[in-house]
TrEMBL record:
This is N-acetylglucosamine kinase-like BadF-type ATPase. Residues 9-312 form the ATPase BadF/BadG/BcrA/BcrD type domain. One of its GO terms (molecular function) is kinase activity. It holds the Pfam family BcrAD_BadFG.
Length: 331
């Protein structure tokens, strides 16, 4: 039975998806909600704030909990630096309270929420590799240094966006050079153009190159992230182009994590995101490489919203919040 003394809300707002969780004060998960991406760097801030409110409303409805019963909440936000703009901060504050919450809005970075989801330790490193990529050094559960996180135009190496872009680039090179289409190239063409295969006719190949470029440029750049699973699947099928992309992704992500750490540091490393926490060859190779390069225990955080909710419980309950982790985070 849900704790009747109050509830917690945790929100994990990323580039493509926003997830909210309602938990009771014993750590029981009582409701979840989902909405679109809410990173104010990759979406209009007004739209991003609306998605946060929508996810909270959905979670409260799922839980059957009145908003005024929530005693503490934390928003883990990708692109939290954008809230340095008072206008943007006001939009998110209005969305929070517009969802009916009476407790104050506390915003942390998505990295801080992810780290809390992966370990009870107060210090360490978190590697976020989902739509975008970044690593952060965490001290006393606060982000004190960051590596990467420059966004799709200037960085995000190893991220789902980067993997998707590399898959299209590799496909274009294959078409342009007349090479045989492998698993990855066929998958990309099928997904983007609904083409199953292309003959060796140079004229046809040039036409497909133009169509592929046009189709990709017609969508927001961040939509390339949807192609990332094709790279992982092709690598599992031993496609050489996909294998090269996976190798490079692992190298970039390990470098990003190491850049966020102090020399000789042996604190835990938490990984989260569709790329970093995946169960396939990419995720497994990444975690092995991180253990070798960083020297600390590597754990996977699956639920940033639960991490945000646990941070809210720490604020409300203090050290007693440690007892919530087994149920809240399935530890």
């Amino acid at each position: 039975m849900a704790n009747t003394e109050g509830y917690l809300v945790g929100v994990d707002a990323g580039g493509t998806t926003t997830r909210a969780l309602v938990a009771d004060l014993s750590g029981g998960r009582v409701g979840t909600g989902r909405a679109g991406g809410a990173n104010p760097n990759s979406h209009p801030p007004e739209v991003a704030a609306e998605q946060v409110a929508a996810s909270i409303a959905a979670a409260l409805a799922s839980a059957g909990v009145p908003a005024d019963r929530v005693r503490a909440g934390v928003l883990g936000l990708a692109g939290a630096s954008k809230l340095a703009d008072d206008r943007v901060a006001a939009l998110f504050d209005a969305a929070w309270h517009g969802a009916g919450l009476k407790c104050g809005l506390r915003v942390v970075t998505d990295a801080e929420a992810a780290f809390a989801a992966g370990t009870a330790s107060s210090d360490g490193t978190v590697l976020v590799a989902g739509t975008g990529s970044a690593a952060a050094r965490i001290v006393n559960r606060r982000q004190v240094a960051i590596a990467g996180g420059f966004g799709w135009l200037l960085g995000d190496e190893g991220s789902a966006f980067w993997l998707g872009r590399q898959s299209v680039r590799a496909t274009l090179r294959t078409l342009a050079t007349g090479a045989a289409l492998g698993v990855l190239a066929r998958s990309v063409l099928s997904s983007v153009l609904a083409i199953q295969d292309v003959s060796g006719d140079p004229v046809l190949r040039r036409s497909v190159v133009s169509r592929l470029i046009t189709a990709v440029n017609a969508e927001p750049p961040i939509h390339l992230a949807r192609l990332a699973p094709l790279v992982a699947a092709a690598a599992e099928a031993h496609d050489p182009l996909a294998g090269e992309i996976v190798d490079e992704a692992v190298e970039w992500l390990v470098r990003t994590a190491r850049d966020a750490r102090s020399a000789g540091e042996r604190t835990p490393v938490v990984v989260i995101g569709s790329v970093a926490a995946s169960g396939g060859v990419l995720g497994e190779r990444l975690r092995t490489a991180l253990e070798e390069a960083c020297g600390g225990e590597v754990s996977v955080a699956q639920d940033g919203a639960a991490g945000a909710a646990w941070l809210a419980s720490l604020e409300l309950l203090g050290p007693a919040a440690l007892s919530l982790r087994p149920q809240l985070l399935d530890e």
